[in-house]
């Protein structure tokens, strides 16, 4: 009898300590849910739900241990209930741990694909300006070549560089574009369609050594202060330039 009682005390103590650890983990998880942002908050909620089920399962096991010691018979419904709590708890806990990382990777992948697409759409505008102003290129030092192209961060660096080079080129060609537009008191930017039509002539005037005119005009002016908004305006001009080139069958 004393041996059975000793085993009972051991199982009860081990089970209670496990429940205590799970309750403590649940308490800390619940605290961090309130101060976390997405997607970490959703992951912590999944973990909290799994820990709740584990606490209930651990408590139920303690009850089953006492019942077995008392009379040796345990209702099948209680065993089924403990299994019902444990079966979804473990995969739910794993899902909660993996969810923030998986969501972050998904968002990073979407941003990478978006910037790669915008980078390619800037090609017509960049090509035209780069041929006129090759000295403005920010790519002055050799890089890893194909290794740089395969790295995830490589597209972000090329995206920023191409946007900056396009903007620098437009600043330099802006006075020549202004000469092709009637003077106006409005400070509105030159629409992409008209800018695309005039860009070829403006680049030709610059290549011919024409003097820099005394006034400039805003081109592809962004509506906000962030670089992505600036890139959207540059892409609109680049798309208009591509359409113009395809329609006339010429290149700047």
Can you give a write-up of this model?
InterPro entries: DUF6545, MAB_1171c-like. It comes from Streptomyces roseicoloratus. The chain crosses the membrane at residues 12-30, 42-60, 89-108. Residues 112-242 form the DUF6545 domain. With 252 residues, the protein is mainly alpha-helical. It has helices spanning 2-35, 40-70, 76-121, 123-132, 146-150, 152-179, 192-207, 227-248. α1 runs antiparallel to α2 (40-70), α2 runs antiparallel to α3 (76-121) and α7 (192-207) crosses α8 (227-248). The model has no long low-confidence stretch (mean pLDDT 80).
Descriptive keywords:
rod-shaped, mainly alpha, 252 residues
Number of domains: 2
Q: Tally the helices.
A: 8
Assess the beta-strand content as a share of residues: under 5%
For the sheet with most strands, the description reads:
none
What is the typical, i.e. mean, pLDDT?
80
- Terminal CA distance: 97 Å
- Sum up the overall morphology in one term: rod-shaped
Supply the helix-strand structural class.
Answer: mainly alpha
How many E-type strands? Answer: 0
* Rg (CA only): 33 Å
Stretches where pLDDT falls below 50 for ≥5 residues?
A: none
* Helix amount: over 70%
- Output the helix-strand order: HHHHHHHH
